Amino acid sequence: MYVAERFFDAGQEYLPKSSAFERYANESLVTIEMAIRVLEPPIYNCDVMALTAKRIMSCSVGVLTIDEAAAIYLYTMWSGKPEQAISTQLNRTLRSGTQDELTSWLSYLQLFVTALNKLPSVNGTIWRFARGDITSYYRNYCVWSGFSSCTRTESLFEVFLNRNYVYTIFEIECISGKAIRKYSECPNEDEVLLMPGTRLRVIKKENLSNGFKKVYLQEEGHPNQQLAPRLGTSVSFNGTYRTGQDFHSTLNQSNNEIKSRPLYSNCSYNAINPANT
Fold first, then answer.
1. Number of domains composing the chain
2. CA 212 – CA 189 distance, rounded (Å)
3. Of residues 206 and 92, which shows the higher confidence score?
4. Which of 7, 31, 45, 231 has the fewest C-beta atoms lying within 10 Å of its C-beta?
5. Which residues touch 277 (CB under 8 Å, ≥6 apart)?
6. Would residue 265 count as lying in a domain?
7. For residue 108, what is the enclosing H or E element?
8. Model confidence over 169-192: pLDDT tens digits?
9. How far apart are CA 215 and CA 168, in angstroms?
């Protein structure tokens, strides 16, 4: 079975009580090839993936340039091993708050964020997931530091959840999400991204009948707010909480656990047998 790991990485978030970024100086927009030049290593085959993304997006229509569309597509692609995916490496860096580590990402971020800010904001209900019960870390409100991959189709992902394990499901009322389905390697995931620094208020928590946990969140802020702060500066906050689940521990729960999809997959869900969960 294959499903994108980034939808299940809520357990990787640091939960600051408050978050502050300085506005960053304008970076020059460059091609996707130039933007990812410094990312390999640690991202294997990144140059090939960028060219693939650009070729696929060459016929893309809409408000985005080909390079901007390719930046989004590249974010949704896997690089052989899940831990080498663009989304994994980028979000790990953002959540670390380490300015030096983020330097190599600034050109890609400028292209990626420029593309996302051109897309209309999504206002509605979206879902995100985490392995394990992490509800105790969600009290009054939280700030998610990375790009948060959510879906508008909860049922699509629920069939992949292993009933022998506990999961936390986040039901989010968003006001400024960015729908990237048209620019995704796997449109069926119906992905909506929340920007780094998104502030969420905890509405309630619930124990579901199947043993899973659920947290209801409301996004706070102006619906037309764009990601303007400088991402290369440190995060300051009054307190930090972490779920305690690292990336590798979420991948190896059992042989029947969710696996990431192979490189350049066509994301066909027809071949997946939900009974194996």
1. 1
2. 21
3. 206
4. 45
5. 1, 159, 160, 161, 162, 163, 256, 258
6. no
7. helix 106-118
8. 999 999 999 999 999 999 999 999
9. 7
